[in-house]
Amino acid sequence: xxxxxxxxxxxxxxxxxxxxxxxxxxxxxxxxxxxxxxxxxxxxxxxxxxxxxxxxxxxxxxxxxxxxxxxxxxxxxxxxxxxxxxxxxxxxxxxxxxxxxxxxxxxxxxxxxxxxxxxxxxxxxxxxxxxxxxxxxxxxxxxxxxxxxxxxxxxxxxxxxxxxxxxxxxxxxxxxxxxxxxxxxxxxxxxxxxxxxxxxxxxxxxxxxxxxxxxxxxx
Length: 219
Fold this sequence. Notes:
- This protein is mainly α.
- It has helices at 29-40, 90-94, 101-110, 122-134, 138-151, 154-167, 171-182, 199-207, and strands at 11-15, 22-25, 46-49, 188-190, 195-197.
- It has 2 domains: 11-49; 90-207, Serine Threonine Protein Phosphatase 5, Tetratricopeptide repeat.
């Protein structure tokens, strides 16, 4: 009887004529051989290797008083921590391509008088002034157009200064500003308001006060 091809520790089933089947584990090749010889004497035996499945560990119960933890489900990520939205920079707000009333409301809601000393770009100041005008903050818009007159595009700044003075009920001052605007070449248009600024327009504003026009631009 040769057990050399059996691995120690494996379960085997041994049968022989006239004997009950024997199932045993081979502690080693020699020990397994001696037990089989002892049990079956010199009878011819048949040895077959039994397949065994690894035992599944039984989960232990938690200690008394300790809450049972829910099972961990692999592949399920923990809930993401929301990242607070970073406020947009002043430059980004004023240089966006949108000129409608919705963008104006967003800009005006974040406006602070501390912005003015930091702004030296005429286009940015014009966008800011329009945003304050759209939201009927005429006094703040007047200050912005005064600042715009200092840094560039003086003709447009003077016309809109006159507009704001008219809306604030300061007609005499508005006429004086419009007269200054006549001395500066002004030729531009604001599609969102349907306005074309030129010499004829300024002359008309000297005769009649400016009335507010609604922003018609679609975002």
